[in-house]
Amino acid sequence: MNPQALIVDDEPDILELLTMTLSGMSIDCVPAENLAQAKQALKQQAFDLCLTDMRLPDGNGLDFVEALQRHYPDLPVAVITAHGNMDLAVQALKLGAFDFVSKPLKLRVLRDLVATALKLSPIKPIRKERRSRDTLLGETDIMKTLRGKITKLARSQAPVYISGESGTGKELVAKLIHQLGARSEHAFVPINCGAIPSELVESELFGHVKGSFTGAIADKKGLFQTANGGTLFLDEVADLPLMMQVKLLRAIQEKAIRPVGGHEEINVDVRILSATHKNLAEAVKRGIFREDLFYRLHVIELIVPPLRERQADILLLANHILQHVAKKNAVISPTLNEQAIAALNTYDFPGNVRELENILERALTWAEGTSITQQDLMLPTQLNPTGLLNNRQADRVLSVENDLESKLEEQERELITQALESTRWNKTAAAKRLGITFRALRYKLKKLNLE
């Protein structure tokens, strides 16, 4: 049986265009010219998709979206808006609309929207019994509420702005939204906007063509193309240069990108999720982040709570992290003694879950036997009155850091040497083989005394 679509629009030409387009995708359509006809059709049969105009002769499209969410929560509904009327589209998304399409209709965008909507399955909540590293653990009310919001947002294509302090797990939240949604079979591509040199951001996002700049020895796909059909997660989006913000906004609006040095646009179908630990609204006020891009990314805000607001979850998280680290290092998972548990429960974790992971990995190194003590944790609250680690702790930390840095440099030196030898000391080819830029390779050669 073909999928069934309900199409609601009072313009006969639009109804005919939508019906022809969806019929070409082997979808059976039921047209309705007003809300009364649409409600009657919903009583008579089940639908896999609903497309509705926002302005109808007998009612408001927003009210219809809200009613569908209450009575048919598994039905994806996309709204049709007048060109440039983003305010209504954003309101519809916040009320639970799956996505929107603007008039005049772009058939490519419409087909992508419909194909994605039909992949949605009935709501599947995040299973509590999953205990992988990529699971959002926690039994506090604030975490149960967060998991519920993630499940709901996974059924939408609305841009989501994930806010929260560093180390709270914003990327994990974004990944879960992707995995539970209709795009889960395609790529989830994260990018840390603050970690890329400003002159390389455009190439990273949109790709480049051979010869477009020094070091561009071949065509390269950008992350938008890599994420095509899936989700692009822009972490630390507040760090994007202003000029790049303009190009990003256009790519999101047009659903098309142009590689650096290219002459033709490439169509892309990507859901955008973004995050930053900074105050993005404040960045807009200061003039360092574009207001129009802010409103395009900030359709729905999802706040990830800091660890200090869910301290009842600390022991659960700690045990899970210890099991994971122990398994990775092929050792028996240790336990925390009472003093260690008390110390963790009274610490405020300014670095959140990431800091908890670092503390426990370090404690596993120092622990003797199968029990971790408060001394092994080396929490900042255990500093001496001068605010410094005692001599024994400082020596141990310094020794580990020096050993780690030395081993990493040794491995880097070996990999770079192998790449240079295999390319007969052609630096450009070696950089390509290593997956880094020519400039980055030159920096490494100088740092490691390999020039």
What does this structure look like?
Helix content is 46%, strand content 14%. With 451 residues, it is an alpha/beta fold. The strands form 6 sheets. A 5-stranded parallel sheet has the order 2-1-3-6-7, sandwiched between helices. Strands 9-12-15-8-16 form a 5-stranded parallel sheet. Strand 6, helix 4 (86-94) and strand 7 form a beta-alpha-beta unit.
Distance between the termini: 67 Å
- Rg result: 26 Å
Give a count of the beta strands, DSSP E runs of length 2 or more: 18
Q: Percent range for helical residues?
A: 40-55%
Low-confidence stretches: 128-133, 384-388
Numbering strands along the chain, what is their spatial order in the largest sheet?
2-1-3-6-7
- The structure class reads alpha/beta
Give the overall average pLDDT. Answer: 86
Largest sheet: 5 strands, parallel
| Backbone shape | globular
Q: What's the helix count?
A: 19
DSSP strand (E) fraction?
Answer: 5-15%
Quickly describe the structure.
It contains 19 helices and 18 strands.
Which properties best describe this structure?
451 residues, alpha/beta, five-stranded parallel β-sheet, 46% helix, globular
